Each structure stands twice: as C-alpha cells, then as structure tokens.
Amino acid sequence: MNSEAFVNRELSWLEFNRRVLEEAEDPTVPLLERVKFLAIVSSNLDEFFMVRVAGLKRRVRENDQTAGPDGLTAAQTRAAVAERAGRLSDEQHRCFLDQLEPLLAAQGIRLVSPGELTPEQEKSLDAYFHRTVMPVVTPPAIDPGHPFPHLGNRSLCLIASLTPSTSSALPQAALSVVHIPTQVGPRFVPLPAPTGEYAFILLKHVIRMYLPRIYQGYTINSCHAIRVTPTRT
Prior knowledge:
Blueprint (H helix, E strand, L loop, with lengths): L8 H17 L5 H31 L12 H33 L2 E3 L7 H15 L7 E2 L13 E9 L10 E5 L8 E4 L6 E5 H7 L1 H4 L3 E10 L6
Parallel strand pairs: 1-6
Antiparallel strand pairs: 2-4, 3-4, 3-7, 5-6
C-alpha cells in the first residue's frame, strides 16, 4: 500500500480548521464575521483535543505501534499534531493582534488594558468589582494542608504566586487559584466610553488588578492565566 496516497485523519482535520482561520484572515469578509470565525477556530481546537488527541494518547499509552494507511503511528501522529496545532494557534493569535484588534479599534471598539484606563473607567470598574465580582470569588490555597483544587473543564483561572507579608510557624500558601467567574458576568466587561464608541476590559485583567484586595496579608509575586482542556481518555 502506498502511504503517500493517503492523508492522516487528524492532520487533515487540522488543515480544515486552518481553512476556517483563513476566513478570519480574509479582508473581504465583514469584520465581526471574521471575529466569529476566529472564535470557531478555538472551539474546534477544544473539541479536537478532547476527542481526537485523547484517542492518540490512549494508543500511545497502550504502546500501539500500528501504522495507519498514511504510514504514521500514533506517536508520530501525536508529534505532528502538536507541531501543526502550535503553528495554527500562533497564527490565530497573530490574526487577532495584528489584524482584527486594530480594525476593531478603528471602528470604535476597543479592548482596554489596565494601564490605559481613564479615571472614569477606573471608578466604574471599582464599583463593578466590589458589587459583582468580589462576592463570587473564592480563591482556594495550595499548601501542604490543601490538595490541588479541581479545575473545571475549559474554565479560565488565574494562578498567583504569593509570599506572606508576616512570618508564621503555621503552613502558609505559596500558590493560589482564582476561577474566573464567567457564569455570573461577561468575560468582556463594558466600560464607559465616548458616544459612538465601545470599550471593554477582560474580566481576568479586572481580577488581576484587584488581587491585592483578595489576598490581604500577602505579596503577589506573579500571576498567570491558565485554561485546562481535558482529554477523554
């Protein structure tokens, strides 16, 4: 059997998703439709890893050396998938940062970073955080007395590295997890903006800004966003 006559199923699927990304990169497609296509790319990748990559991982774990019609084993396919999926993800990010975000800003739709907030926006955000976000944020600690907390399927979290401000003989947390409560509020928080314009800030940036109020008595060394996509093995 000539393996060159066959296309690997998983790699073919990634090529299909790349064509979805090409719709987001196409300047002839309406701007908001391009944003939707970019979101579809992410949703497709989630499903791909949860189902297709899970099957590959299971075969690798079982030491399955069987090659498919394309001549690739499960381990070879998994390596090729990791490389192509990484390139696809990089291209997706460049599409948003280099193309779509500037075009949205030109149309009066802006994503604001914490350092760009106006005094009016800061005041509005402070009220929003204490009224809506603070009551539902429960950051579990990670220390010898607490097991690593459960991270929800595809839920966005912040991992904070902490140092206690005062010494203690008792075990103290060095890490903590904050689940981003997207169930109770929008991931893109609206901000005051001039008439005819729209401004938003990411909810993860809001929580990161207010971490010192959540972790009183600790110095926050660093904070990073993570998102777990489980595979069904």
